[in-house]
Amino acid sequence: MTELSVDHVLERCERYWRETGVRDVAITDMRRELESHLREAVAAGKSPAVVVGDDIPGFAEAWAAEQRGPRRRSTWNEVKRQSRNGRGIGVFAILVIAVVAALVLVGPKEDSVDDIEVWRWVWLGAAVVLGIGEMVTAGLFMLPFAIGAVVAGILAFFEVAVWAQIVAFLAVSIGALWGLRSFAWREGEPSYPVGAKRYVDAVGTVIEPIDRVAGTGRVRVETEQWSATTDLDSVIEANTEVRVIDVRGARLVVEPKS
Amino acid sequence: MCLLALIAEEPSYGYEMVDKLQGRGLALVSEGSIYPLLSRLQKKGYIEGYFVESTGGPPRKYYRIAPPGRVRLDEWATEWRRLASGVEQVLNGGGRD
Question: Shortest CB distance from B59 goes to which of A36, A52, A67?
């Protein structure tokens, strides 16, 4: 097990919590509690690594998930993984180009010029129709076939045999379908800011004191007035600048901006 | 349930709870898993947390049981005793048929 210092563990956990959208109030609380635990463990002769284990993000996530529910923001690890997905697509594209180039240069040629002419139009038409279809539908289903048709069309242009065009169309389409869909799947569902959710992270002004216990409070955000609540025990006075951290029912959950 | 029972005995903080649980033979309780559990119990309103200054280091977050926690602990204890007694009966009469 790697030897870790208390400060290093605290810094890594705090960074993870910030990156994944845990509220500042909860981060402060968790950090204090973790620091107290780690210092006590060290005093008793235990290393911080024994407390948190090898998987610091896993440790941090288990705790954070209880505070803020499932993760909403990407961590730098996910960003890295997404760039790996991007690299996968790049490798696939290079592979396709290499195969197309090989077929053009040394692949079987089509004897019938008429057939080639027909197939050029077939692939061109298919690429256009599928491309338009992709634009008007959702789900990344037609795009892979459009890519396949473009590749097959290129082969038709260079008079590569029709059977090789069809094989290339199928291979590229299936490869692109698998690659693009798994890429889209791993990207996760984008959280579109709709309804009141669009105000999360927005800054507003308290127009009626926010008292969690009494259940009172209103804020103005942009041009709209909203009922508001807070997770803090103290009352947030009128004219305080607040940041929206969540939406609960028809109320914005806020905390002082500072 | 064990955590709640410990906190019901007397207010306690994370590090101390791990020590107590391990001292009572529950060595499976990892130090990494106790805080998510405490957070969950707190969110459900079973326990309340508060910081207490410590002489030898940073402040400790103590937890005390809240009234809904006492009710839930009683329910859990009843369920557990019923289950344990059933298992005991099965073990005592097991393998005789």
Answer: A36
Per the rule left: phi > 0, alpha: psi between -120 and 50, beta: everything else, A216 is: beta
Are B73 and B56 in contact by the 8 Å Cβ rule? The answer is no
Q: Residue A78: what residue type?
A: E
Q: Does the distance separating the beta carbons of A43 and B35 come in below 8 Å? A: no
Non-local CB neighbours of A146 within 8 Å, separated by 6+ positions: A126, A127, A130, A131, A133, A134
Which has the closest alpha carbon to A167: A184, A151, A182? A151
Secondary-structure breakdown of chain A: helix, strand, coil percentages, each rounded to the nearest 5: 60, 15, 25
Chain A residues with CB inside 8 Å of B32's CB?
Answer: 51-53, 59, 62
Pairing of strands A224-229, A251-256: parallel
pTM: predicted TM-score of the whole model, two decimal places:
0.45
A23 phi and psi angles, rounded to 5 deg: -70, 150
pLDDT, tens digit, for every residue of B37-88?
888 888 888 898 888 887 777 788 899 999 999 998 999 889 989 999 999 8
